Amino acid sequence: MRTVGVEEELLLVDPDSGEPKALSTAVLTRAVQDDPGQDLFQLELFGQMLELATHPHTDMAELGAEIVRSRKEAARVAGEVGCAVAALATCPIPVTGALTADDRYRWMARRYGIATQDWLVCGCHAHVAVDSDEEGVAVLDRLRPWLPVVRALSANSPYWQGRDTGYASFRSRLWSRGPSAGPTELFGSPAGYHRQVADMLASGVILDHGMVYFDARLSVKYPTVEIRVADVCLRAETTVLVAALVRALVETAARDWRAGRPPAGHSVSLLRLAAWHAARSGLEGELLDPATMLPRPAPEVVRALLEHTGEALSDSGDTALAEEAVGELLDRGTGAREQRGVLERVGSLREVVTECVRHTQG
After folding, report:
1. How far apart (Å, rounded) are the C-alpha atoms in residues 162 and 341?
2. Which residues lie closer than 8 Å to 340 by C-beta, 6 or more apart?
């Protein structure tokens, strides 16, 4: 069975006011003091962000338990240096990013200018094991039309700089301003993939392989494909759902490749429209159907994803988990809908942040 692990980026905030706090270095220093060999936390582009990474798992219950433990540990360490963690993909209240002291991040700030400030956003990246670059590229080619549906399920960023953006996942719109971000054309082979990456590096527009910000890519560090479309999810159970569905998508794509079934030939232009539509509406209204690229009610498209991955979900023992989690998510709404519900009740974006701190910490 394929392993899957996730990386979650969390926002560091004042526990009372909700104001973002650039304390990631202090949090990491404290974590290392507690455990010199810790590999859970990493710094990110801005000091108001902290990344945590799980180990790879085959069992979704074990993955979910580690996500919950990791969030609680992040909350504990952050609390010791005077802040809290919030699983928010964008900060609802106005914020200016404090760049982390790192040569690579300084290069990005110089190269991309004011656009860099828009990247104070928190995503969730899932790593799913593949056997080879050949299988990995075949998977990337076949995942493309389904990735907007994953984005819609995870949508958790309706507010930005003190305003309701009208989007469910505004994080993805901010992130798409990067020169290498977004959907990709068909690569066809490992040679095609690596040739495109080499050409991008040679252009000088990006600095290294880590700045190949495709929606899904081959990992440079691990024998995995890395799916990067999801917002960090407000609830840990939504992260587990995303991980289960992404693994099932990878397994389904690999089986299709081995069976000689070709990938859908949708253009990048259509895929960008599907990505925009998912970011705009989340699970409210419609999504573009991955097969036809025509509008269809979002719940029907989500059910089509379950049907598409049904065999892989069954073989991994994740059918009941996925169906139950999808049903709950469709009833309750995404993180974006929950955030808007909090604002309707309390009337304050700062209270939205502090309420999401409570969700994050369980």
Report:
1. 16
2. 158, 164
Contact 88, 156 (CB under 8 A): yes
In contact, 190 and 133? CB cutoff 8 Å: yes
pTM: 0.97
Q: Cα-Cα-Cα-Cα dihedral of 187, 193, 199, 205, to 10°?
A: 90
Count of domains for the chain: 1
- What stretch of H or E contains 142? helix 133-143
Report the Cα 194 to chain-centroid distance in Å.
23
CATH of the domain at 106: 3.30.590.20
| C-beta atoms surrounding 48 within 10 Å | 25
Count, residues in the chain: 362
Domain range spanning residue 57? 4-360
* Cα–Cα distance for residue pair 104/320, rounded to 1 Å: 43
What pLDDT tens digit does each residue of the chain (362 aa) get?
999 999 999 999 999 999 999 999 999 999 999 999 898 999 999 999 999 999 999 999 999 999 999 999 999 999 999 999 999 999 999 999 999 999 999 999 999 999 999 999 999 999 999 999 999 999 999 999 999 999 999 999 999 999 999 999 999 999 999 999 999 999 999 999 999 999 999 999 999 999 999 999 999 999 999 999 999 999 999 999 999 999 999 999 999 999 999 999 999 999 999 999 999 999 999 999 999 999 999 999 999 999 999 999 999 999 999 999 999 999 999 999 999 999 999 999 999 999 999 999 87
Residue 317 φ/ψ region, left for φ over 0, alpha for ψ in the -120 to 50 degree band, beta for the rest: left
